[in-house]
Specification:
This protein is mainly beta. It has 4 domains: 304 residues, Purple Acid Phosphatase, chain A, domain 2, CATH 3.60.21.10; 78 residues, Carboxypeptidase-like, regulatory domain (Immunoglobulin-like), CATH 2.60.40; 82 residues, Immunoglobulins (Immunoglobulin-like, Sandwich); 79 residues, Sandwich (Immunoglobulin-like). Helices cover 15% and strands 38% of the residues. It contains 8 helices and 36 strands. Strands 1, 2, 3, 10, 11, 12 and 13 form a 7-stranded mixed β-sheet that branches. Strand 10 and strand 11 form a beta hairpin. The two termini are 51 Å apart. The N terminus is likely disordered.
Length: 599
């Protein structure tokens, strides 16, 4: 039996009241004393699980801010995104609205970035944000003096800014969308170019990774082709001398991380990540109290929960940063570290072991995780990474002796045949144009692309018969006898699609032939109960009443190890020593499924 709303509300208010009483008695004793020039910004990491499961915790956070706004001189509250778990949930947005409205009632300024869960769909490939803009859009801020006069896209709060002034200095909070598009960064540059007199804090949902490196193509594969953390740094953040802080959340495999780097003007940029969504009660109410002290040139960061009244006091949660570069000498030695990986996205990335890294003449060899570290003199240097089977990667870097330097390399495999010099372009190595071939046909292709490759696809007579993520293409395609047009296409991280076309004539078909039974799955190899080597060939053919959309290989019923668009499989599979169950599954255009197992 459900409890009446009034009872639920009373319980919620009671819980918040008890938590805030504990906070008053226990929590505030840990806060640093402030000078008259100091001010505070409170950061709310991902609140999504509070909005869905624990609205009383979200209330406790904003109520604590309201109660302490005057005493702590809180100038602003910043939400780093994922305000809710389900972007279209009326219950969750209602809970979030209730908690944020506490700040409205107290007159405390705030900004909330949009996270991936705040869009209409997950993943947010369409970037539709109707619900988010309905309750956290421009209309909510319309009468707030701190709200900026421009947003992007026009009429939305996916990208916007806010201002405040303290101690005679103006501050600008630049709020960017989740993995910003190039157009969003162009808008951001227009705002920054018009506000060079202001100190800038950047807020965006996904920027810093849990290992204290900027999010790159290998970390999350979020919104491929848009600006991950690494691109945001090089394309925007490092370019402006008045940016001093970047705040983000999103990542879940660690609760906090931070790094600092100088921008191109030598300004210190402190990049801070925090997210407790996977902890007890969706985060137990922990928030960040950032005390800015212009007179001391420091940013003091504390981590506190108004819900429990407790502080986290380890070095990852309580620390002090030198806010601005005051010209003091560094250590004299620059520490450089990074990783060498294949140029791809997400799971397509792999560490390159034994690569040689040369930075300014100092060399190191990557370990089993593709990592290396060097110490040398600071300054402008040339750097390279090389490994057998890969093209050498080169770059230049300005090494500093204030903070550790991150220098990563993403290497492209050596193409399987000579490539065009056009960037981007694709060359079909096999089969040759106007050649006569035997089915199944070995299709091999390489690319010349400065952006990592996202996927390959093979089209036969205008129909896509195969697709795969990754950086190389080498597969077999079954083609019926006769003349055919074969096209191979690739998509890179800049969202460019490019390819090449060849014409082939196929003689008699060999390989695995489908059974006459409909529906049926015929596994020609390996034979049932066969003993095979660790890498073995799988040949199969499906016969279904409707066109086959895809065929898949599963090992031991738990892992899909291969998929092809079509009824025929001719590929190699690697398995650990031991007994295994191999299943080939085909799905037709109506969604019907057939399976065949081989032990």
């Amino acid at each position: 039996m459900s409890r009446p709303y009034s009872s639920l509300l009373a319980s919620r208010i009671t819980l918040v009241s008890i938590a805030l009483l504990l906070a008053t008695l226990l929590g505030t004793s840990g806060l640093h004393a402030q000078s008259t020039s100091d001010f505070t910004i409170v950061v709310l990491p991902d609140t999504q699980n509070y909005s869905q499961f624990h609205p009383e915790i979200f209330d406790s956070q904003t109520q604590w801010v309201a109660n302490n706004a005057a005493g702590q001189n809180i100038k602003l509250v910043i939400g780093v995104g994922d305000v809710v778990n389900n972007g279209t949930s009326a219950t969750e947005t209602g809970n979030a609205n209730h908690s944020i409205s506490i700040l409205d009632q107290a007159g405390v300024p705030y900004v909330f970035a949009i996270g991936n869960h705040d869009y209409e769909t997950l993943p947010p490939t369409s970037r539709a944000a109707t619900t988010f803009n309905g309750y956290l859009g421009p209309s909510r801020y319309a009468n707030k003096a701190y709200y900026g006069s421009s947003n992007f896209p026009a009429g939305s709060n996916e990208n916007f800014y806010a201002n405040f002034t303290w101690g005679g200095k103006s501050y600008l909070i630049l709020v960017l969308e989740y993995v910003p598009r190039d157009s969003a960064l162009a808008w951001a540059k227009s705002i920054l170019d018009a506000n060079t007199d202001k100190e800038v804090i950047v807020v965006t949902h996904s920027y810093l990774y849990s290992d204290s490196t900027t999010v790159d193509e290998c970390d999350t594969a979020d919104m491929v082709g848009d600006n991950d953390g690494s691109r945001q740094w090089s394309n925007l953040i490092s370019q402006y001398s008045n940016i001093s802080v970047v705040l983000s959340g999103h990542v879940t495999n660690k609760f906090n991380a931070r790094r600092s780097d100088p921008g191109i003007a030598g300004n210190f940029v402190h990049q801070i990540f925090a997210n407790w969504q996977d902890w007890t009660n969706g985060g137990n109410g922990y928030l960040r109290i950032m005390q800015f002290s212009p007179s001391n040139n420091t940013i003091n960061v504390e981590t506190y929960s108004p819900y429990t009244g407790l502080f986290l006091t380890d070095s990852g949660n309580q620390f002090t940063l030198k806010w601005h570069n005051d010209g003091a000498a560094g250590s004299g030695s620059a520490v450089v570290s990074g990783r060498v990986r294949t140029a791809a996205y997400g799971t397509g990335c792999s560490s390159i072991v034994g690569a040689t890294v040369n930075v300014g003449g100092a060399t190191a060899t990557t370990d089993s995780t593709g990592r290396y570290s060097l110490t040398l003199q600071p300054g402008q240097v040339s750097a390279s990474a090389s490994a057998a089977g890969y093209q050498t990667g080169t770059k230049t870097a300005a090494l500093n002796d204030y903070f550790p330097n991150q220098l990563d390399f993403f290497l492209f495999p050596v193409p399987p045949c000579p490539q065009s010099t056009t960037d981007p372009s694709l060359t079909i190595c096999k089969p040759l144009n106007n050649s006569t071939v035997t089915s199944p046909v070995n299709v091999v292709a390489g690319v010349n692309s400065s952006a990592p490759i996202n996927s390959f696809s093979i089209w036969l007579d205008g129909i896509k018969v195969y697709s795969t993520p990754g950086v190389t293409l080498n597969t077999n395609v079954t083609i019926s006898p006769g003349s055919h047009q074969l096209i191979v296409k690739a998509t890179n991280g800049n969202k460019q699609v490019f390819g090449q076309t060849v014409n082939v004539t196929t003689g008699s078909t060999t390989g695995c032939q489908p059974l006459t039974t409909v529906p049926s799955e015929h596994i020609c190899a390996p034979a049932n109960n066969a003993t095979v080597s660790s890498t073995f060939q799988v040949l199969s053919a499906a016969h279904m009443a409707n066109p086959v959309n895809n065929s898949q290989i599963w090992l031991d019923g738990v892992k899909k190890v291969y998929q092809v668009s079509g009824p025929n499989i001719n590929t190699s599979v690697t398995a650990a020593a031991g007994s295994h169950r191999l299943t080939v599954q085909s799905i037709d255009s109506t969604g019907a499924i057939i399976n065949r197992r081989s032990s």
